[in-house]
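User: For my dataset I need records formatted as: sequence, then structure tokens, nothing else. Please produce one.
Assistant:
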Amino acid sequence: MFEIFKIGFLSINFLDLLDIAIVSFIFYKLYTAIRGTIAAQIFYGLVIVLVLTFLSQAANFKALGWLLKLLSDIWVIAFIILFQPEIRRLLVLVGKSHFLKPFIKTNATNVADIITDTAFELAQQQHGALMVIVKTAGIRGVVETGELLNSRINKNLLRTIFFPRTTLHDGAVIIRGDLIEAARCTLPLTPLTVQDGLPLGMRHRAGIGISEQADVIVVIVSEETGSISVAENGILKRGLSRDGLRTRLLNSIGSPKKANNNNNIFDKIFKKN
């Protein structure tokens, strides 16, 4: 390969530059995904070790190179074990590819209408609810924590599930496509206890928690206040109106063109740094 330039004992060609650019892009994306977390501090140390390992191998320092390589291998394993949530979130971000949506068939308008009507009817009666709508990848592990239903979605069934005297009202309902997959499911809780100066109840923590780890949108009805919130990508939006909730659902699980015909249009937000 044609040599572009040379730095000391290093000969650089076009493929080397391309290789460096790709690796730099990967490390940049890793950094943006975990920036602001505890894992970021460990990430800095890992980068330093990897750079020193490369330099020692280039200088043919065999003993130092072997020691640094051993350290980097151990560090990578420790990184994976200690920071599973951040790695899981990174993989979820990678999996949220927009080109997959045309292949996912669902009657989004009908589903959005049913969930919206149900949420506001439950809110009027101050019956708490937690509805997880799967967008792309499934959450089989969460589904298996509850009672499997695999029933076509309808308003009466959802209202019955969240009626306080039923055995299924605790926990979350998982909705995929036009099916209610399961009820009374257990969701992971976010470590956050306060957001925007307001305390988070268990339903809201659970809604945020699952949205941090999976490609879902979560509708939360507060039992205490009757307010309706939506959690997506780890961000909670409180106090949605009927049109606002329907539009958000259509933007997430349906066609943006359909959602743009409504009166209120919410920006498609929530890229968590």
